[in-house]
């Protein structure tokens, strides 16, 4: 089985587990006044699980490929040449994402997001610091402003010890 189908199989299993959690474990915790609402907090996770299963099954069953294509194209993933891809960059970006998630609460949104964006662009090959830092600062500040002020969702901008 090709690499894309193995990835699709893992994706379908993940979506099935996610769907089970969304359908059977989220709704019993709702207070009685919310149980009459047409849209529940579990509605979007349910839609994501169903959509993910459908997309994963399309790839798993090979329905997205034309029938007359027997030879893989140059844009397809070739698992025999996996060592030629930039796996180091991909793994480093995944590690940065994990570090970002762990640093989000203690360091605050603005600092952790700015550091993540600068480090991520550095890993991907950007070396113009005079471009990376202002873009990361503007992006982090804009997202924080939209979430905090426009949507009204509290998002701690700075670390706990700064008291802001």
TrEMBL record:
Origin: domain of life: Bacteria
Protein keywords: Membrane, Transmembrane, Transmembrane helix
Signal peptide coordinates: none
Membrane-spanning parts: 7-24, 44-63, 84-103, 109-125, 132-155
DUF1468 domain span: 5-155
InterPro entries: DUF1468 (IPR009936)
Keyword Transmembrane helix applies: yes
One Pfam family per UniProt: TctB
Name assigned to this protein: Putative tricarboxylic transport membrane protein
């Amino acid at each position: 089985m090709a690499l894309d189908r193995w990835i699709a199989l893992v994706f379908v299993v993940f979506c099935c587990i996610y769907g089970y959690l969304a359908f059977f474990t989220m709704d019993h915790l709702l207070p009685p006044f919310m149980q009459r609402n047409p849209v529940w907090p579990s509605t979007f996770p349910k839609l994501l699980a169903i959509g993910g299963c459908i997309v994963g099954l399309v790839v798993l069953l090979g329905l997205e490929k034309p029938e007359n294509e027997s030879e893989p194209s140059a844009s397809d993933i070739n698992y025999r040449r996996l060592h030629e891809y930039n796996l180091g960059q991909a793994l480093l970006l995944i590690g940065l994402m994990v570090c970002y998630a762990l640093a989000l609460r203690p360091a605050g949104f603005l600092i952790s997001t700015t550091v993540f964006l600068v480090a991520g662009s550095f890993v991907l090959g950007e070396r113009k610091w005079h471009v990376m830092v202002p873009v990361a600062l503007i992006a982090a500040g804009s997202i924080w402003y939209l979430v905090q002020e426009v949507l009204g969702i509290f998002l701690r901008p700075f670390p706990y010890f700064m008291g802001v």
